[in-house]
Design a protein that fits this description.
Layout: H1 2-50, E1 59-66, E2 73-74, H2 76-88, E3 94-104, E4 109-119, E5 125-138, E6 141-151
Parallel strand pairs: 1-6
Antiparallel strand pairs: 1-2, 3-4, 4-5, 5-6
Length: about 160
């Protein structure tokens, strides 16, 4: 009976160690994802302001945009046109993201929830809203995989 209790105790200690390490690994992975997302968000609107297509570097190769009042836009050409139109037709030159939360384990995908603001060439706010972005870990780091956003403003 003593050997049984000893074996059971060893099993539970090993299991507890395994769980603690798994939680630590997930926490480290999630922190890595959060840092990558913050870095991407910090340069996102500067890439839009260049109007040279470099904004697509923030997105995975198989990414899609899910803009309001529009069909889903997948593929580099469709996304490039969307951002070009934002620059040329709507005057988008800058903006800001505010991350409210990041969900997930940081291993393969995480979801970012937040708020956005769009600024014109004079730095004036012309639109704002909320977003959910599904981020994907790729061979090139964390990239936006599905980008869904909507305005807080009433439709005109």
């Amino acid at each position: 009976m003593k050997n049984y209790k000893k074996s059971l105790l060893i099993f539970f200690l090993a299991f507890a160690h395994f769980i603690a390490n798994a939680q630590s690994n997930h926490a480290n992975a999630l922190n890595e994802a959060k840092k990558a997302i913050a870095a991407s968000n910090a340069t996102y609107f500067a890439a839009i302001a260049k109007n040279d297509g470099s904004i697509l570097n923030h997105y995975a190769e198989d990414a899609c945009l899910l803009p309001p009042n529009s069909t889903i836009l997948c593929g580099r050409a469709a996304m490039a046109k969307f951002f070009k139109d934002g620059y040329e037709k709507y005057g988008l030159r800058g903006g800001k993201f505010t991350t409210l939360n990041i969900y997930g384990d940081g291993v393969e995908y995480v979801t970012e929830e937040g708020l956005w603001e769009s600024l014109d060439a004079n730095g004036k706010l012309f639109d704002d809203g909320k977003f959910l972005v599904l981020w994907k870990k790729t061979k090139n780091g964390w990239k936006m995989y599905r980008d869904s956003f909507s305005t807080n403003r009433a439709q005109k």
